[in-house]
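Notes from the 1:1 (GR / supervisor)

We went over the backlog. Supervisor wanted to see one worked example end to end before approving the batch request, so GR pasted a single chain during the call. The sequence is below; no edits were made to it. Supervisor asked that the structure be written out right there so they could see what the output format looks like.
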Amino acid sequence: MEIQSVAITKQAIDFIERNLDQKLDLDGIAAAVHYSKYHLHRIFGDTVGMTIHDYARRRQLTEAAKLLAFSDRPILDVAMVCGYESQQAFTATFKAMYKQTPARYRQTRGFYPLQLRFTLQEGADGAGIKKSDIVFAGKQDIPAWMELTRLVIDGYPCMDEEEYLQKLKRYVDQRRALMVKHGHGAVGVMAFSHDTGGIEFFGIHPQYRRTNLAKVFLNKLAEDILPEREIVITTYREGDRADTGHRDIIKGLGFGERELLTEFGYPTQRFVFSPVRKSTGEVKTDES
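Structure output shown during the call:
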């Protein structure tokens, strides 16, 4: 990752964070950082794995959700404070992302973020990471794991951080938590189940999503830990506007679509990765 690209993206993120109460668009952000909007659009997407529009919208909706959960401000006020020009536009976008209206979300009083602020690192390059670099996480790794979790929260709707932390401690104790460190911290984590073959959490640092790190993790699990086992994961359904690309990543790894599910009240879909038989090198199918 070029140092200049990271520096420019940081400037854009800083501007967005200072102006979450304003209408944010590519033209305005590009003008603020004194950079071509066409180049900024490309650089931002390459660096953080989502468009600048998606990042800004998700950050504003996260702040809106916080106000809905922890204050009694009228919904119209929340919409205006978070950069929306009308309650109607705010409600439509909020429902598309949170799967419930702002009024219904307020009734639940259960805040969870769509997007937390990105913290970027210079010199991110996962080209040299191998299976042998992926190790079981220890208790000392939990802070680094949680820091990465906050960066990849866009892939995990309805995440309750306190509840997740308790699960993570069990994953670590049971040797069900894989991670790899690179640069200044964790850049990839995976929690899994020996019993079901399910991937219960899989996060790749946004700056490493365009490398083959996700494939290296899958190979580690499929070849070294759960050989000749089906591996299962769930993610967003097709067309979900909250998905920033995680569904495409999973399909690109070779997972096949299965049944539609609802988890924690959120619509998802199950995907299955068929194992390779060591004896023949053939892919095992559902019928075999």
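Supervisor's comment: Strands lie at 135-136, 177-182, 185-192, 199-204, 231-236, 256-263, 266-273.
Batch request approved.
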